[in-house]
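Run: sequence + adenosine monophosphate -> complex structure.
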Amino acid sequence: MPELNLILIGPPGAGKGTQADRLRHDFSLPYIATGDMLRANVKDGTSLGKAAKQHMDAGDLVPDDLIVEMAADRLRQDDARDGFILDGFPRTTAQAEALEEHLDEEGRRVTAALLLEVPDEEVVRRISGRRICTKAGHPFHVEFDPPKVEGICDEDGSPLIQRDDDKPEVVRNRLRVFHEQTFPLVEFYDDRGVLRRIDGTDSPAAVHDHIRALIATLKLEDGV
Ligand code: AMP
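>> structure
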C-alpha cells in the first residue's frame, strides 16, 4: 500500500501537536515529535539530552547533526515503514535535505507538508497560557482549557507549571528562530509540489476537517 508521509510545519503554538494527535488516530500512523524525543532525553539525562538542554532552554535550535541522527534512527523503526507524521522536524533546510536523502535511499518521499498558518500575536497568546502538570505533562491552558482547580492537574492532582521554553522572552526567540530558520521550508516543499497551506486560526475541529479533506484529495491524486 502506498504510504502517507506527513510533515507538520508551523510556528510554536500553531496546534501541530493537537492535529497530529487526531491524525495519528485517523490514519494509524506513528507520531514523531522531535521536541518530545528531546525532552525525554533531557529527563533521562542522556548525552544527547545534556547536549540539547541549553539550546532548548534558550528557545534556540539544537544542532542539525544531533537532530538528524535522532530522527533518522526513529524513521528506521518498523512502525514508520508505512508512513509517519513528523512534528517539529525538519526545522531547517539542512534537515529537510537530510530527510529527503534518507527517504530517497529507501525509494520514499514526503507526501504532504502541511503548513499551519497562525500570526505571531496569536502564538504569544496561546503559548503564554499553556501549563503542564509536573507528574505526567498533561496539558492545560489558563484561558482555553483551564483545570477544574486553578494550578492543579485534573488527571493526577499534581501542580501545574509553565514550561521554561513557554516563558514570554523564550517564546519571542522561538518565533524569531521559526521565521529565520524554519520558514524557508515553505519554499523548499512548495518547489517539490507537496506544500499545503492551512488556516491555523480556525477551531481545532475545523482545522482537522480541513486537513482530512486535503488528505482525501491526495489519496485520490496518488491512489494512496
Ligand atoms: P518543540 O516541542 O517542537 O517546540 O521543540 C522544543 C525545542 O526542542 C525547540 O525549541 C528546539 O530547541 C528543540 N527542537 C525540537 N525539534 C528540533 C529540530 N528539528 N531541530 C532543532 N531543534 C529542535
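>> summary
The first helix runs from residue 16 to 27. The mean pLDDT is 93.
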